[in-house]
């Protein structure tokens, strides 16, 4: 009975956390409900209670974030959240990591996995939110870089039509889509609030870790300091960004075979083990039951990870 309770409780907590995260009210909905709650308090009591519940959970995550604020990884995690375009806090990501780790350990314990597998599941659960944020950051940065040449070209055409530089940024925010519209819109709003143009651009470069964007910001700021025809500078910057994107695409095409080789070499042993178990059930049981077999499994998994990291390092060509 004890092991059943110890298994059910973490699974229940994981399910509750996942359901709360999926159903929690978004920022825009919170603002709308809060404003309506001031006028129609009695008619929106359920929504207001939901917001208060979310605020209590937010205070818990903030307390966790304050506890980890003195560690170095907290600053790195905060930057990753910013680059991913999320509004979560460090405390919430840490709390989510702990919940995923506990859930993974509970599932492995339920299936009577070896201690090393349970420990591996705990580590995997801890890094799951981090890897998810990295994936969101990569996807968002790719969308931004793909739209940046067209946005720069739009700025050059707006300048030729007689608009100011600040108005060009507003035009890009209004006529673009995706992350670039939000970031340029935020930059324009910062200028409207009285932030100098130079500082607003530098803050834009801090929010988006894009080398192409750094080229654009540097070109604009240099033109502001030294003078010159900004439209020609933007045209040249657009050509540089597009050539860089083209070269990156060619490099990815040349290294596609190496990446595919890495995936095949990493997945082939697992696929073969599954196929052998289907054709001959119980054939690989000694690998999991015998101490020598478990050591061989750990050694094989370690060698696969090392090989995958080496192949990734080889095919990761910086442009």
Question: Overview of this structure, please?
Answer:
- This protein folds into three domains: 2-137, no CATH class; 141-253, Type II secretion system (T2SS), domain F (Receptor-associated Protein), CATH 1.20.81.30; 255-315.
- It has helices at 2-23, 27-39, 45-67, 72-83, 90-110, 115-160, 165-175, 179-192, 197-207, 211-226, 230-254, 256-279, 285-289, 291-315.
- The radius of gyration is 26 Å and the shape is elongated.
- The chain is built from 14 helices and no strands.
- Helix 7 (165-175) packs antiparallel against helix 8 (179-192) and helix 9 runs antiparallel to helix 10.
- The chain has 319 residues and is mostly helical.
């Amino acid at each position: 009975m004890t092991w059943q309770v110890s298994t059910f409780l973490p699974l229940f907590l994981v399910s509750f956390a996942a359901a709360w995260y999926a159903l929690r009210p978004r920022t825009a909905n919170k603002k709308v409900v809060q404003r309506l709650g001031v006028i129609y308090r009695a008619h929106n009591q359920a929504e207001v209670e939901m917001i208060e519940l979310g605020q209590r959970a937010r205070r818990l995550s903030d307390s966790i974030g304050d506890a980890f604020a003195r560690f170095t990884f907290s600053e790195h995690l905060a930057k990753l959240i910013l680059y991913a375009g999320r509004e979560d806090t460090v405390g919430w990501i840490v709390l989510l990591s702990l919940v995923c780790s506990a859930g993974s350990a509970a599932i492995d314990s339920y299936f009577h996995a070896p201690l090393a597998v349970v420990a591996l599941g705990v580590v995997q659960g801890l890094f799951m939110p981090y890897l998810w944020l990295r994936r969101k950051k990569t996807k968002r940065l790719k969308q931004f870089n793909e739209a940046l040449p067209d946005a720069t070209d739009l700025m050059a055409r707006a300048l030729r039509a007689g608009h100011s530089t600040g108005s060009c940024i507003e035009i890009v925010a209004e006529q673009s889509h995706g992350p670039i519209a939000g970031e340029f819109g935020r930059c324009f709003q910062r200028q409207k609030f009285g932030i100098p143009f130079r500082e607003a651009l530098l803050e834009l470069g801090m929010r988006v870790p894009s080398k192409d964007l750094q080229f654009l910001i540097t070109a604009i700021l240099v033109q502001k300091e030294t003078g010159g025809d900004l439209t020609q500078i933007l045209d040249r910057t657009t050509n540089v960004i597009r050539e860089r994107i083209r070269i990156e695409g060619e490099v990815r095409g040349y290294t596609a075979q190496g990446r595919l080789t890495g995936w095949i070499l990493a997945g082939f042993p697992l696929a073969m083990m599954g196929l052998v178990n289907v054709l001959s059930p119980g054939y690989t049981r000694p690998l999991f039951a015998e101490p020598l077999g478990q050591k061989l499994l750990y050694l094989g998994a370690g060698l696969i990870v090392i090989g995958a990291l080496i192949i990734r390092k080889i095919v990761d060509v910086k442009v």
